[in-house]
Amino acid sequence: MRAATWRVVGVVIVTMLGVMAAWTEVSSAADTDRVDDYFALHNVPLAFEKLGRGVSNTLGGWLEIPINMHHRYAEDDKAASLFTGFFYGIAKGVVRTGVGVYEAVTFFLPYPEHFAPMLPTLEYFQSRRNRQPLPLEY
């Protein structure tokens, strides 16, 4: 009795895989995907990018502290440059976390015509390391 049950389960799995393969061929033959067109019409991909950026900034705002400590470090005045970097990092981390919360909460709102992110991506997550300085950054 147990072997018959496993045979039935095997036949069901093979049948499902065959149906899925046939469905993939049929769906890939279509020129346009109506769901993607609908999402693009209503800026759904941009909304989810904004949500992801908001969550990333909310959870990674504290990363501004070591980044700024590294950028402001000076060999001739170690203590002062580390404290300066630490406090700059705290200030920028609070701003980044606040912007992240704002973007995560408002991701579903419609975009203005010339939308751009409020903050650049954290240096830890950038693919290239040579970033433009932030406004008011010296």
Question: How do you describe this structure in short?
Answer:
This protein has helices at 2-29, 34-41, 44-60, 64-72, 78-105. By secondary structure, it is mainly alpha-helical.
Nearest-angstrom radius of gyration? 25 Å
| Quaternary organization | single chain
Which spans of ≥5 residues are poorly predicted at pLDDT below 50?
Answer: none
Order of helices and strands: HHHHH
**What is the strand tally?**
0
Number of DSSP helices?
A: 5
Note down, in words, how this protein is organized:
With 138 residues, this protein is mainly α. The chain is 65% helix and 0% strand. It contains five helices and no strands. The model has no long low-confidence stretch (mean pLDDT 77).
Topology of helices and strands:
Elements: H1 2-29, H2 34-41, H3 44-60, H4 64-72, H5 78-105
Features:
mainly alpha, 138 residues
